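[Help] Beginner question about ligand-bound structures

Sorry if this is basic. My supervisor gave me a protein sequence and a SMILES string for zinc ion and asked me to "get the holo structure". I don't really know what that means in practice or what format the answer should be in. Inputs are pasted below exactly as I got them.
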Amino acid sequence: MSFYPILTFEENKLSPSLGYLFKRQWVDPFESVVSILWKFARMNRLPGHRVVAHVARGQIDPYEGYAATANELDIRMTAASLGLTQKTIRLSMQRPEMRRSWCSQLRFCPQCMSRGYHSVVHQFDGVGYCPVHGCCLQTRCRSCGSTSEYLIKASVLDATFKCPNCRRSYGNSPLSFVHRIPMLPRDRAAIVRTFIY
Ligand SMILES: [Zn+2]
Ligand SMILES: [Zn+2]
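Answer (accepted):
No worries, everyone starts somewhere. Holo just means with the ligand present. The predicted complex, written as structure tokens, is below.
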């Protein structure tokens, strides 16, 4: 049972009049929606629970969270709020027609996390290694050993590229998604190949 109130749909919606800071250059190909929303929350100094509710299709408990699927997340609202195309948002989440099983725990490549990048392909069951770096994908925090659910959830979005339990960064070096070089074509191609096959 949650100790937090379930706020109504309207109470939780962010006001568009505030304006949001988001640049499409911060998003890499096949970036996961969790990764994208981490950046949105961080750059707009928004608490996770408000972002979770803002992008939900209906009334939800942001502390319980929901799956990163098109059934639960409002693609149109998310795309409009972030200034991204609906296609970008669609590609960032699980869709029924993909016929791939996804890991229910957050799986990550520490080197990609250092860049401020978590990809949908990292969540694919059967993909054990990062297509870009070749390192073994991980689910456990190196500091406290805990895993994180792969959900659009307040505690997850409050820990930007970090372990929600101990707040240690999942990456190997300081986060640099604002001042990073664009993804190299060969790295992009490696992600695309993994996504397709
Ligand atoms: Zn990687
Ligand atoms: Zn931890």
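A couple of things worth pointing out: The chain is about 30% helix and 0% strand. Helices lie at 9-12, 33-43, 48-54, 75-82, 86-91, 110-115, 154-157, 185-196. Feel free to follow up in the thread.
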